[in-house]
Design goal:
The chain is α+β, with helices and mostly antiparallel strands. The protein is built from three helices and five strands, in the order ββαβαββα. Strands 1-2-3 form a three-stranded antiparallel β-sheet. It has a two-stranded antiparallel sheet with strand order 4-5. A hairpin with a 5-residue loop joins strand 1 and strand 2. The longest helix has 10 residues. The protein is globular.
Length: 97
């Protein structure tokens, strides 16, 4: 059974006991890890089209903290953004100067 977090991420219950973060997992992270292995420390999984419900592997991208910060500053990380991430800026820290 799927549900959403208060900030719109799709989660799925994986066990009945434990604290909340042990009982649920983020669907987009699980999909990424099924295809690519664990998310490295300091990295996060983002959505190319900004739609947090679109957890297909083709829509997921691995970002580091600098990339995430720049995308957030430009308003390109969320589903109400005027421009999809895939059409926006280069995903390279060097591009941010």
């Amino acid at each position: 059974m799927y549900t959403h977090t208060t900030d719109g991420y799709l989660i799925q219950k994986v066990q009945e006991t434990g604290i909340q973060r042990e009982r649920f997992e983020f669907v987009h992270r699980r999909v990424w890890e099924e295809h690519n292995g664990p998310v490295p420390e300091g990295k996060m999984v983002g959505f190319l089209d900004g739609d947090k419900d679109n957890c297909s592997i083709e829509n997921l991208v691995l970002l580091d903290c600098a990339e995430n910060l720049e995308l957030t500053r430009r308003g390109l990380r969320f589903s109400n953004s005027p421009q999809a991430l895939s059409d926006s800026i280069p995903l390279s820290p060097e591009a941010y100067g």
